[in-house]
Amino acid sequence: FGLIVDGAVIIIENCLRRFGERQHELGRLLSREERFDLTAEATAEVIRPSLFGVAIITAVYLPVFALTGIEGKMFHPMAFTVMLALTSAMLLSLTFVPAAVAAFLGGRVQEKENRLLQWARRAYEPALNWALRLRWAVLAGAAVLVVLSGMLASRMGSEFIPSLDEG
Questions:
Q1: Which of 111, 128, 147 is the last residue of a domain?
Q2: In total, how many domains does the chain have?
Q3: What angle separates helix 69-94 from helix 96-104, to the nearest 10 degrees?
Q4: Helices (H), the chain
Q5: Alpha-carbon span 93 to 8, nearest angstrom
Q6: Collapsing DSSP states into helix, strand and coil, what is residue 68?
Q7: Whole-number mean pLDDT of the chain?
Q8: Neighbours of 15 (CB within 10 A)
Q9: 131 shares a domain with 102
Q10: Nearest to 7 by CA among 103, 79, 92, 104
Q11: What is the CB neighbour count within 10 angstroms for residue 43?
């Protein structure tokens, strides 16, 4: 489950970016106090998007609790477990992760792009620019796909698992 570590990755990435920028500005390593202050600032910058991301993923599992019968018995524990894991991971990423970053990452921080990342950036940047230039066409295409998906979903059956004759 990569989605469980998303919050921690976002916070660590932002802290490391800010460490690297500050070290470059000052031309030296950061002191312990500077790391703690910078970690608090960097975490505060990304708390809101991180919380919204986890809230959205958690909300996706809420409809599972509307399932009844065999489906409900099968999927309620899974949905509860995922929601509990997401909530716990988010709490850790807001408390333990920033403290660990500030305490243990004290060396020189530099951002380097490997060849794969450079290739991905060269491929992604033109596609992103194209989508931003033609944003209304892209949004219209996405809306059409959502409507078509809704039409197809409405034609599907609603029973996920056939009822069992246990008797």
A1: 111
A2: 2
A3: 40
A4: 6-26, 32-61, 69-94, 96-104, 115-133, 135-154
A5: 5
A6: coil
A7: 87
A8: 25
A9: no
A10: 92
A11: 24
Longest Cα–Cα distance of the chain, Å, equals 77
pLDDT tens digits along 10-48: 999 999 888 888 888 888 888 888 889 999 999 999 999
Output the six-digit token pair for 156.
């599907």
Residue 74 one-letter amino acid = M
> Which of 107-124 are b and which e, b meaning 16 or more Cβ less than 10 Å from the residue's Cβ?
eebeeeeeeeeeeeeeee
Angstrom CA distances, 133 to 12, 126, 137, stand at: 32, 10, 9
Domain extent, residue 53, equals 2-111
- CA–CA separation, 102 vs 11, rounded Å? 11
Neighbouring residues of 14: CB distance < 8 A, sequence distance ≥ 6: 42, 43, 45, 46
pTM of the predicted structure, to 2 decimals: 0.67
